[in-house]
Write a structure and sequence with these properties.
CATH architecture of the largest domain: 3-Layer(aba) Sandwich
Structural class: alpha+beta
Bound molecules: flavin-adenine dinucleotide
InterPro entries: Cytok_DH_C_sf, Cytokinin_DH_FAD/cytokin-bd, FAD-bd_PCMH, FAD-bd_PCMH-like_sf, FAD-bd_PCMH_sub1, FAD-bd_PCMH_sub2, FAD-linked_Oxase-like_C, FAD-linked_Oxidoreductases_BP
CATH superfamily of the largest domain: FAD-linked oxidases, C-terminal domain
Number of domains: 3
Low-confidence stretches: 11-19
Keywords: FAD, Flavoprotein, Oxidoreductase
Protein name: cytokinin dehydrogenase
Distance between the termini: 16 Å
Catalytic activity: N(6)-dimethylallyladenine + A + H2O = 3-methyl-2-butenal + adenine + AH2
Largest sheet: 8 strands, antiparallel
Radius of gyration: 23 Å
Mean pLDDT: 94
Strand order of the largest sheet: 14-11-13-12-16-17-15-18
EC number: 1.5.99.12
Strand content: 15-25%
Shape: globular
Helix content: 25-40%
Length: about 525
């Protein structure tokens, strides 16, 4: 069928946007198709802003059946690929396809929203869940769950303008992951359209190989159309705290102690970041206080402070009915054990939803200054506890000691919270750190400065490889097969087997550049 469609798209490239109804009819889709410039406008770029491609068409499906038809149409062609696009917040073209079909998952955002309870055993009501679309934005999932049910997902990303399917294809990590695992550990069932065009429901018990393949699977095995996300009662309020360290060892010791406490006896959120020991408004001291009234007084820093400082970021959930003194007591019991620099504790109380939407404020500011639209040469890694000290000495204290024009996150995670049946690969050892260099580029910057940032990212990765650092890229981006094989290590053959099982023609997510479309 697509043999007839493909030339049709191509012949009409000049008449972008026209005649697409006929194509839609021949594919028998309920949704719409956009071609030419209309398609490139939607799916030709991503948040990274460093790649640009021309898709053949963008399909706006109505649901799984439409998506299955698109996959089957690509299968019956001799070269077409299919890229699911969530909110296009990848950095390196992962949701793109040159000359292929993009499935814009946002058109399915409203397809599911149903709260239920897992059977609790013993007849009681079990854990609450919500069924949501793979194309839903986490921000909307949060708002609806809280306002309609007083419930909320347990594990988040820092920024919520991302789709459910997009983060589940990677992991989905934030300050709750030390307790609940990444978002991939907080779903119990998925509907997936495989690379064979089959529509399959999967879970740990049913079609489990597909379930675990898709979680963290970089879009390689299927397109997630529905996810069953575990919920917890939503707290009303959050106490959000930042404390500052001059010494990396003390920062890591406290962070590791906090994430190793038993459930419920630690903070509800533990993150951290590195900042420049100077008054730079984007990279330095001013990035730490949480409120305009807070004063960061550098005179109180120890003489021995180095080029960078470390900030532990914590949050404690509570209810409106909890008295101030109860909350204070819970905070003091934990924070009293920490060895941050005296005089460098900042805190505010804010509604839970506002806390989870805290990065939206940064998005609004970046949109005003223009840095939301400029390129984002970001680097995300997982580094084992064994090597994080070396990493700090070389990368933070030397290579990026002047900052990256945005946050430099670092916080510990526990491997035991990650199911090794999923497709995600991690460093060895129970404790590892997520490191994120979230570079923003001023609008006045020259193209060469973006190239320098990309080169510095490569330098960091090369340094890690050369020095035998136990690390994995998160949101990985490699161009050669050798690099992918090294990335997956002893999980490579499993990944390849899964590809053969669920997407044997390598139709899906070509932008990851792991497999080539089979002829
Ligand atoms: P896209 O970029 O559209 O797609 C990503 C990949 O998933 C592509 O390969 C695509 O083909 C595939 N895909 C998309 N939808 C589906 C689907 N339904 N089924 C199967 N495959 C699919 N990550 C974190 O873990 N924690 C954070 O705190 C965090 N913060 C971020 C903040 C910002 C401002 C940005 C830009 C990114 C952040 N990320 C974070 C990274 C983010 O999780 C990933 O980039 C994610 O892939 C983006 O989701 P998306 O919906 O835009 O996916």
């Amino acid at each position: 069928m697509i043999a007839y469609i493909e030339p049709y798209f191509l012949d009409n490239d000049a008449d972008a946007g026209k005649h697409t109804d006929g194509v839609s009819d021949s594919l028998n889709l309920q949704g719409e198709i956009l071609c030419g410039d209309d398609a490139a406008d939607i799916a030709g770029k991503d948040f990274g802003g460093m790649n640009s491609v021309k898709p053949l068409a963008v399909v706006r499906p109505v649901g799984s059946e439409d998506i299955a038809r698109v996959v089957k149409a690509a299968l019956s062609s001799d070269k077409l690929t299919v890229a699911a696009r969530g909110n296009g917040h990848s950095i390196n073209g992962q949701a793109m396809t040159e000359g292929g079909l993009v499935v814009d998952m946002r058109s399915t955002a409203e397809n599911h929203f149903e709260v239920g309870f897992l059977s609790g055993g013993g007849g009681g009501r079990g854990t609450a869940f919500v069924d949501v679309s793979g194309g839903a934005l986490w921000e909307n999932v949060l708002k609806r769950c809280v306002s309609e049910y007083g419930l909320a997902p347990r594990s988040w990303t820092d920024y919520l303008g991302l789709t459910v399917g997009g983060t589940l294809s990677n992991a989905g990590v934030s300050g709750q992951a030390f307790r609940y695992g990444p978002q991939t550990e907080n779903v119990t069932e998925l509907d997936v359209v495989t690379g064979k065009g089959d529509v399959v429901t999967c879970s740990e018990m049913e079609n489990s190989e597909l379930f675990f393949s898709v979680l963290g699977g970089l879009g390689q095995f299927g397109i997630i159309t529905r996810a069953r996300v575990l919920l917890q009662p939503a707290p009303d309020m959050v106490r959000w705290i930042r404390v500052v360290y001059a010494e990396f060892d003390e920062f890591t010791r406290d962070a590791e102690w906090l994430v190793s406490q038993k459930d419920e006896s630690s903070f509800d959120y533990v993150e951290g970041f590195v900042f420049v020991n100077g008054d730079d408004p984007v990279n330095g001291w001013p990035t730490v206080p949480l409120h305009p009234d807070h004063d960061f007084d550098p005179a109180r820093l120890p003489q021995s402070s180095g080029s960078v400082l470390y900030c532990l970021e914590l949050a404690l959930h509570y209810r409106n009915s909890d008295s101030n003194s109860t909350v204070d007591k819970r905070v003091e019991r934990l924070i009293g054990r920490l060895r941050y620099e005296e005089g460098f504790r900042f805190e505010v109380d804010l509604p839970y939803v506002d806390f989870l939407l805290r990065v939206k404020r940064s998005e609004e500011i970046a949109k005003v200054t223009g840095t939301w639209e400029t390129p984002h040469p970001w680097l995300n890694l997982f580094v084992s506890k064994r090597d994080i000290g070396d990493f700090d000495r070389t990368v933070f204290k030397e290579l990026v000691k002047n900052g990256v024009g945005g946050p430099m996150l670092i916080y510990p995670l526990l491997r035991s919270r990650w199911d090794d049946r999923s497709s995600v690969v991690l460093p060895e050892g129970e404790i590892f750190y997520i490191v994120a260099l979230l570079r923003f580029v001023p609008t006045c910057a020259k193209a060469s400065s973006v190239e320098k940032m990309v080169a510095q990212n490569q330098e960091i990765v090369h340094w890690c490889v050369k020095n035998g650092i136990d690390f994995k890229l998160y949101l990985p981006h490699y161009k050669s097969r050798e690099e992918w094989i090294r990335h997956f290590g002893n999980q490579w053959s499993r990944f390849v087997d899964r590809k053969a099982m669920f997407d044997p023609m390598a139709i899906l997510s070509p932008g990851q550049k792991i497999f080539s479309r089979a002829l």
